[in-house]
UniProtKB/TrEMBL annotation:
PANTHER family: ELECTRON TRANSPORT OXIDOREDUCTASE (PTHR10909), PEROXISOMAL ACYL-COENZYME A OXIDASE 1 (PTHR10909:SF250). One of its GO terms (biological process) is lipid homeostasis. Keywords: FAD, Fatty acid metabolism, Flavoprotein, Lipid metabolism, Oxidoreductase, Peroxisome. Residues 515-691 form the Acyl-CoA oxidase C-terminal domain. The keyword Lipid metabolism applies. GO terms for cellular component: peroxisome. Its cofactor is FAD. Residues 313-474 form the Acyl-CoA oxidase C-alpha1 domain. One of its GO terms (molecular function) is FAD binding. It holds the Pfam family ACOX. This is Acyl-coenzyme A oxidase. Transmembrane segments: none annotated. InterPro entries: ACOX_C_alpha1, Acyl-CoA_ox_N, Acyl-CoA_Oxase/DH_mid-dom_sf, Acyl-CoA_oxidase, Acyl-CoA_oxidase_C, AcylCo_DH-like_C, AcylCoA_DH/ox_N_sf, AcylCoA_DH/oxidase_NM_dom_sf.
Length: 699
């Protein structure tokens, strides 16, 4: 796992490297360079109107070109793409909530086509294109094409199949989607009802299918179906199926395809054409089954390769890994909005008529906000680590080493579940942290929530995924006595005997500042919960029955294990060199906040397993409170470090210059209801009502 450090390092240098901006402190607090002078962000950022209602002009973060050279590629690429998108009128943010579905969708097509044009014109690399997609900030068919269709062919296709299909897909001469889910089956992939029956007479397959996928754009799909040859079933496999004509985009014979209709929220994920697809005896050539895992011969015989069957699920492992990094982005975006606004917003305060208190100074606000800020950083680090794990497993697979696949599956499934659930909850919390104005569309938070929340369901329902982690953990525990040493993220289980007995050494609040103490508490909690589940399971005659009965406890154990991974990767990160004066200390504080807040929220686990005493829990809470005061002076710098443009944030409350109130007022007048002073419908409904009341009053 040590090479994870390389990735983590990249991140720190590039993002916290922003840190170079927040490094020149004059005093103990982190500073931020605004208009060329270094000022400590101890309060409201001085020149920026965070904390003031007056317009302060457009103060910009200084990012000198010569400084950019210092940043490693990722930051540079990301920053360049953010600016490119923000300055291009085609990518302007429409008020998506106001658009009809057709307008919304057509706008998405326009932006995607323009993005592709720019990618070609500017000869953007894959990394640059991917950053561009991120900043365009609109779910589109291209996500599925690049994110699932292409990876499915790469991961499950033979060399020959890749050579045939990938060039077409790379040039977007075909557009593909990932058609796996049916009306009746999503989580249960082996239960799919779509069948692909091999017909040796004609060398073709036939399908019946009902997927979630792309309803209006894709010309092709990788369709998952149960393979049947010679009257026998051979499990689920992927098949490349052409859906629409490449000449006029009409569905091919036997194919019924369309959009499944409006989804949650206005705007939001409705830019995506999730679709319905029905096959009626559609025939495709035999060699369009992705055959890396299993080959079907001309005679209809199945030949298993040495690659494990689970590779059929490989695309999901890949996407789940990307979803973890995306969680950090969505969370950091919401936290950036809520933190900046909390510094602007004032309520209550001195009775003598002095200025009211910035809401960010209330301990309750800090105790809700700062753990979310810490989580955004934590998810970023664990996302980078997971990227490394995924690359590592991919390289091993290429060398026919399948040993780390189960762990990669458990980690991607578990961390996808943990981070998306936490992020969805956090976005909603950020909305509440912004009070009434958070409920306005112009805060950017309602749409962010609506667009984000399906991440808890797609790519695997979060509970179903945690149950996969629990299976992996139960297997690991059951092998503990067998001499098979647990490795990677379960290595701590090798010390199960010690961890079952260990006593937390904390005696005073500061003792909670030792990473080893925190780690041991989280390890002991996870091991104890896993072992307790394994013991309960062993009482069942039928293990599957036991697994169903105990599933709620198993999910809790899986969460404990996944939280341990996040905490341990954060701690690992801090063992490295981190450039920028004061940056490491800030990250350390965030790491403690992340861990101690989890401990506080899951106190029941820690106490009931005897990992810590009530007194130690109370000391942890005391310490947590004191850490909030240390984050407060640097909170704005820590969210500025995400380097989000106002265009990307799309939030009046999260504006960089803090000029919230005049802009809220300005934004209100843009609403179509304000196009006329007297509303449509006045004559028809309001006036007669008023007149009626007048007549009644006279009576
Ligand atoms: C403008 C810009 C232009 C260009 C842009 C450029 C670039 C853009 C690039 C990219 C964009 C990137 C990313 C974004 C892409 C997409 C994200 C956005 C939207 C997402 C859309 C959503 C898509 C979907 O939802 S697709 C459908 C997903 N479906 C699921 O997730 C189903 C969930 N169910 C399952 O996974 C499985 O069925 C199961 C729950 C795991 C159960 O499996 P099974 O029935 O087989 O049962 P078992 O439990 O017995 O398992 C058997 C065995 O297998 C192991 N296992 C299971 N899963 C896996 C796996 N995935 N990998 C490895 N191993 C696995 C399991 O542990 C068991 O092992 P053992 O036998 O050893 O115990
Ligand atoms: C916005 C969006 C985009 C999508 N895009 C695609 C796509 O591009 N391609 C594609 O193929 N699919 C796509 N999907 C489908 C998605 O992958 C599935 O909806 C998802 O995998 C969940 O499966 P399900 O709908 O069958 O949920 P279900 O399994 O029916 O879940 C319903 C409830 O049952 C519970 N449950 C289910 N099984 C168990 C169990 N074994 N134990 C305990 N509880 C259980 C779940 O926790 C959940 O609470 C998309 C979905 C959405 C929302």
């Amino acid at each position: 796992m040590s090479s994870a450090q390389g990735f983590l390092n990249d991140w720190v240098e590039s993002r916290v490297g922003l840190g170079s901006n927040i490094s020149n402190s004059r005093n103990t607090s982190v500073s931020y360079n605004i208009k060329g002078c270094w000022i400590p962000l101890t309060d409201n950022g001085g020149r920026r109107s965070l904390g003031s209602r007056e317009e302060q002009g457009s103060v910009r973060c200084r990012r000198d070109e010569d400084r950019l050279g210092w940043f490693p590629p990722h930051f540079d690429v990301s920053d360049r793409m953010a600016r490119l998108v923000a300055s291009d009128p085609v990518f302007r943010k429409d008020n998506r909530a106001m658009l009809s579905r057709k307008e919304l969708f057509k706008n998405t097509l326009r932006k995607a086509a323009h993005a592709w044009k720019r990618i070609i014109e500017l000869r953007l690399s894959e990394e640059e294109a991917s950053e561009m997609r991120f900043y365009v900030d609109e779910p589109a068919f291209t996500d599925l094409h690049w994110g699932m269709f292409v990876p499915a062919i790469k991961g499950q296709g033979t060399e020959e199949q890749q050579q045939k299909w990938l060039p077409l897909a790379y040039k977007m001469q075909i557009i593909g989607c990932y058609a796996q889910t049916e009306l009746g089956h999503g989580s249960n992939v082996q239960g799919l009802e779509t069948t692909a029956t091999f017909d040796p007479e004609s060398d073709e397959f036939s399908f019946i299918w009902w997927p979630g996928g792309l309803g209006k754009v894709s010309t092709h799909a990788v369709v998952y179906a149960r393979l049947i040859t010679e009257g026998q079933e051979h499990g689920v496999h992927g098949f490349i199926v052409q859906l629409r004509s490449l000449d006029d985009h009409m569905p091919l014979p036997g194919i019924t395809v369309g959009d499944i209709g409006m989804k949650f929220g206005t705007g939001a994920y409705n830019t995506m054409d999730n679709g319905v697809l029905r096959f009626d005896n559609v025939r495709i050539p035999r060699n369009q089954m992705l055959m890396r895992v299993m080959r079907v011969t001309r005679e209809g015989k199945c030949v298993q390769s040495n690659v494990p069957r689970q590779l059929i699920y490989g695309t999901m492992v890949y996407v789940r890994q990307t979803i973890v990094s995306d969680a950090s982005s969505a969370l950091s975006r919401a936290v950036c909005i809520a933190t900046r606004y909390s510094a602007v917003r004032r309520q209550f305060g001195p009775q003598d008529g002095g200025v009211e208190t910035q809401v960010i100074d209330y301990k309750t606000q800090q105790s809700r906000l700062f753990p979310l800020l810490a989580s955004a950083y934590a998810f970023r680090f664990v996302g980078e680590w997971l990227k490394w794990l995924y690359l590592d497993v991919t390289q091993r697979l290429q060398a026919n080493d399948f040993s780390t696949l189960p762990e990669a599956h458990a980690c991607t499934a578990g961390l996808k579940s943990l981070t998306t659930s936490a992020t969805a909850d956090a976005i909603e919390e950020c909305r509440k942290l912004c009070g009434g104005h958070g409920y306005l569309s112009s805060s950017g938070l309602p749409e962010l929530f609506a667009v984000y929340v399906p991440a808890c369901t797609y790519e695997g329902d979060n509970v179903v995924l945690l149950l996969q982690v629990a299976r992996f953990l139960m297997k690991t525990v059951s092998q503990l006595g067998s001499g098979k040493k647990p490795v990677g993220t379960t290595a701590y289980m090798a010390r199960a005997e010690d961890l079952l007995q260990s006593r937390c050494s904390v005696q005073k609040a500061e003792d909670w500042l030792k990473p080893s103490v925190i780690l041991e508490a989280f390890e002991a909690r996870a091991v104890r919960m896993c072992v307790a589940c394994a013991q309960s399971l062993s009482k069942f005659q039928n293990p599957e029955e036991g697994f169903l009965e105990l599933s709620a406890d198993l999910v809790e154990a899986a969460i404990a294990h996944c939280q341990l991974i996040v905490v341990s990767k954060f701690i690992e990160k801090l063992q490295q060199d981190i450039p920028g004066k004061g940056v490491k200390q800030q990250l350390q504080i965030l790491c403690y906040i992340y861990a101690l807040n989890l401990l506080h929220k899951h106190l029941g686990d820690f106490l009931s397993t005897g990992c810590i005493t009530p007194k130690q829990a109370s000391l942890a809470n005391d310490h947590l409170r004191s850490l909030y005061s240390k984050v407060r002076p640097n909170a704005i710098a820590l969210v500025d470090a995400f380097n989000y443009t106002d265009h990307f944030l799309g939030s009046v409350l999260g504006r960089y210059d803090g000029n919230v109130y005049p802009k809220l007022y300005e934004e209100a007048w843009k609403d179509p209801l304000n196009d006329s002073v007297v509303p449509d419908g006045y004559q028809e409904y309001i006036r007669p009502m008023l007149k009626q009341q007048l007549r009644n009053a006279r009576l």
